[in-house]
Amino acid sequence: MPMRKIINHPDHVEDETVSGILKAFPNILKRVEGSTRALVRANAPFSGKVGIATGGGSGHLPLFLGYVGEGLATGCCVGNVFSSPSSEDMLDVTKAVDSGAGVLYLYGNYSGDTMNFDMASEMAEMEGITVKTTLGRDDVTSAPIAEIERRRGIAGIVFVFKIAGAAAEEGRDLDAVHAIAEKATFNTRSMGVALSGTTIPAAGEPGFTVAEGQMEMGMGVHGEPGVEIGPLLTADEIAGQMLDRILPDLPFSSGDSAAVLVNSLGATAPEELYILYNKASEILGDRGINIHRVFIGEYVTSMEMSGASISICKLEDDDMVKLLGAPAYSPFLSQQFGH
Amino acid sequence: MPMRKIINHPDHVEDETVSGILKAFPNILKRVEGSTRALVRANAPFSGKVGIATGGGSGHLPLFLGYVGEGLATGCCVGNVFSSPSSEDMLDVTKAVDSGAGVLYLYGNYSGDTMNFDMASEMAEMEGITVKTTLGRDDVTSAPIAEIERRRGIAGIVFVFKIAGAAAEEGRDLDAVHAIAEKATFNTRSMGVALSGTTIPAAGEPGFTVAEGQMEMGMGVHGEPGVEIGPLLTADEIAGQMLDRILPDLPFSSGDSAAVLVNSLGATAPEELYILYNKASEILGDRGINIHRVFIGEYVTSMEMSGASISICKLEDDDMVKLLGAPAYSPFLSQQFGH
């Protein structure tokens, strides 16, 4: 079955991607010795600082590996496309990022990942490493608010990497880094829309599809069912429907300060993201919500999937504002002092 | 005809995109008063510094507007999708970025753009503004080397924005900024491959197509004919064919230092770009070419087109290395000191 993908072999996608990233940025990332899929910052661990370990399936770049860097995560394990990494790789990353100050696990709420990270956490504790966990669970359509612990993580986790990463870089202790990560997660809500499916290379054909001219509101980044399939609406209508679900969920209220992320799932062009933002910013303004910082682009993708998501993070206090605005650097996310 | 695009109306794509960008980054960009499609840095002009004006058709973000920023271009005029901006908008940008030190026009070599920029240049000269022009013409497949002046500009212009922008930011005079822009252009070569077409919103259907399982080597970013249509090759074969054409064209030689850009045309995922780079870096290493700096991601797109390009810029001397490595900031390109 033909695919529109530039690859060599479906079984080599993940290893060759990792190999390409390491060749491109040898001073920034390195493999943990003896592992192919456990990667950490080139000079990890950092004395006295909490390590942040993440990971998940491939096919979502910049997530997860792209958020390893200064003021962000410290290490990452890389699974096959849309599959959890192994607990062994997670343990390797954990040991490589721990400086004695403990490790925060920060990843999306998917059953394969939680099972393996929980196993890694138990093994790490046996080796004397303290681990705490924060799960991205920002997708408002994936479960009702009463079952918030069941919700999936999508693009909103980027805010958590940024905020918790800055706290770890500052030298806060594990309890404090965990607390701010939980606070960022709790204050973040997202919703996505899919205009097409995507193809796992090893499968060779789309695991799910959306017909041309249709859309699925709330579809997950691996094709998890959304809330409604219907004709493709306008950008303004899509932005409206998303915010109608996102804003009451926390709820976000007049006078709140927030950061906004408009994310492409892959094929959706930057132009379309700005058209979505054009309306979203108007709606937020009308509701009295102050937009403090904006992220627009490809942050969490599903390979060549067409679609987008909007994520909003309420900035509860000056500390969150400061951490979100702190400098950060990875090959995929560069935020400068003063910007 | 249904499209997989998140828009409101085909005729509003460009204005709503610009509006969204201005709402997202009001402290960084502004409209020239009285114009909707002429945009400049929020605090332009910069006393004593050469202004750099660019522009072209929409549908290529980050190109062109995304390269307006610190250490980059100073202003940009925005055309309709795949259409030249007007000479009036170009003149507006020219006047708004000129501080008396003159203006460099830097854009891609397409007939509509050159006609309008040349007209704007004449009008600017009548108003006492000195203008010089550098054209991106890096696509090796668009004309033979003997007719290099006919070549199209594709993603390689990013190197020229970065190098010339740093020279202008340093305060070099117009002759010097023009000279380094010409040097960067001369030393840059690119080649692309398309795996799909793309749809101009106002047309509603693809202006050109590539069948699934096929590819067109050398196709331009607006669907201009390439050199060969055939079955989709592997990533390693594609990287090999591209470098087989790019490297002899300058030629790049053993011992050269170079910057490499692997660019997605839109739908092609970051993972695939790294798989391409994995092979490209190996080939360059085998040829004795030292990779000094790497750019991998969406730099010059064609909306939702599937495909990629490789651009290589020979770094002839320490000055080019320094300018390419200088800090820069726009909402679409952030390069920090020391990285």
Descriptive terms for the model:
homodimer, 339 residues, alpha/beta, Rossmann fold, Hypothetical Protein Tm841, Chain: A,domain 3, 6-stranded mixed beta sheet, globular
Characterise the protein shown here.
The structure is a homodimer of 339-residue chains. Chain A is α/β, with parallel strands linked by helices and 339 residues long. Chain A has two domains: 10-186, Rossmann fold (3-Layer(aba) Sandwich); 190-317, Dihydroxyacetone kinase, domain 2 (Hypothetical Protein Tm841, Chain: A,domain 3, 2-Layer Sandwich). Chain A is built from eight helices and 16 strands. Chain A has a six-stranded mixed β-sheet, sandwiched between helices. Chain A has a six-stranded mixed β-sheet with strand order 11-10-7-14-12-13. A two-stranded antiparallel ribbon of chain A has the order 8-9. In chain A, α3 links the parallel β5 (103-108) and β6 (131-136). In chain A, α2 (87-97) packs across α3 (111-126), α4 runs antiparallel to α5 (174-186) and α6 (235-249) crosses α7 (270-286). The longest helix of chain A has 17 residues, at 270-286. At the A-B interface, α1, α6, α7, β13 and β16 of A face α1, α6, α7, β13 and β16 of B.
- Rounded to the nearest angstrom, the radius of gyration of chain A is 19 Å
Shape of chain A: globular
CATH class of the largest domain in chain A, please? Alpha Beta
Helix content of chain A: 25-40%
The largest chain-to-chain contact, stated as pair and per-chain residue counts, equals: A-B, 65 and 66 residues
Count of alpha and pi helical runs of chain A? 8
Average pLDDT over all residues of chain A: 97
Q: From the helix content, strand content and strand pairing of chain A, which structural class follows?
A: alpha/beta
- Strand order within the widest sheet of chain A? 1-2-4-3-5-6
N- to C-terminal distance of chain A: 46 Å
Oligomerization state: homodimer
Report the major sheet of chain A: 6 strands, mixed
Q: Strand-residue fraction of chain A?
A: 15-25%
Overall structural domain count of chain A: 2
Beta strands of chain A, count: 16
CATH topology of the largest domain in chain A: Rossmann fold
Spell the H/E element sequence of chain A: HEEEEHEHEHHEEEEEHEHEEHEE
**Unreliable sequence segments of chain A:** none
